[in-house]
Amino acid sequence: MKILLVGGGGREHAVAAAIKRSPQKPLLYTVMSKKNPGIAALSEEVLISDEKDAFTIASFAKEKGIDMAFIGPEAPLSAGVSDALWAAGVPAVGPKMNCAKIETDKAWARKFIEKHGIEGNPKYGVFTDYEPAAAFIDQLSDVAVKPAGLTGGKGVKVMGDQLPDIAAAKEYTKEVLKGDSVVIEERFVGEEFTLQAFVDGKHLAFCPTAQDHKRAYEGDVGPNTGGMGAYTNAGALLPFITPEEYEKAKQIMQATVAAFPNETGDEFKGILYGQFILTQNGPKLIEYNARFGDPEAMNVLSLLESDMAAVMKAVVTGTLDQMTVEFSKKATVCKYAVPAGYPDNPEKDAEITVLGGAGNVLKGPEADLIVYYSAVYEKDGKIYTTSSRSVGVVGLAATIEKAETISQDALDKTIKGSLFFRRDIGTPALVQKRIDHMNKLRGQK
Ligand code: GLY
Known about the structure:
single chain; 25 strands; binds glycine
């Protein structure tokens, strides 16, 4: 079996490792814009190419006789790489453009959810002109401001966070409107969590819930990033989520998947990523992504016990209901080591060392530590930073606390270079803060 993987980040290194753990021993072919040394080590052949070049990717897949593909990042989804692969006779895990709009067009996504009577939407408005947008901000008085299009996870700004007051929200709205339409939404208060699922068009196989940390610095301060690290609990539920709240989030995602064919004429086949916020009134939808999260993929795919190639086959053939996708009941903590100055002024081309390399990467849930390469490159046997997140370090253990110690220890002792990371992710103090916050909100109801 030959599998093609598109993308070259930490998320894709985790996907590549999961594919290579398959007992069917698939051969892996990869397309990425820069050569990730971890993924390259698992590949038969690497094509260095623009990941949005649908024609080149589909031609490569045909030429190599690829049986199935997995598309990691959002950019190739938005450029029609899945459409081109299916048209070339290569089934792909990753939705076609018209379904990827759930991520690539936030205005479309809100209207789609509303139109199909799916729960979880905030009060919202979509605007192309400043005056009505400003009036709506006054009306809601506490808002999130989102560019409608893709921003690499860094475009959303929220009052009480990056936007100190209504004037700042209006100022940012003006800035967004220079290049895009703007979505203004009621701000929810609560704890965020990520629920990801393999989707075959009709059925969903859910991964354990995860919590990402967007802000660059400890204590959840500093600029927004793609995500500095995430944790999962032993089992599906984070410690601040009740089984009822978890069921509600699952129902929202199920209803969303069921609505695609009516709206787009196509089924959603790929990974659906629900970014939820747990409020005192239950889970609400912050946004959807049409792919795995990065870093969350490193958490959940490290735990995947099922055969990834079989899961992919079930996704593309619409037969996920005929298998159980199993995850180890361990907790995970993933922390990213990122270049000094990231995200605003990252130190590029700095040499780093990862002692032991990514040696455990094929062990999966049997390992207690897995290191995934992300935005780094190899030259003359040495590893160098680029402008984005460098190395994802995942601890796996019976508890979040132990998994955190394993990840942090590895960062302190084995990853060297001009890098920084967040010590607080997954620590008992931070996890307790999340639990206390939710208990307080529930108590105020
Ligand atoms: N970790 C957030 C994302 O992948 O969008």
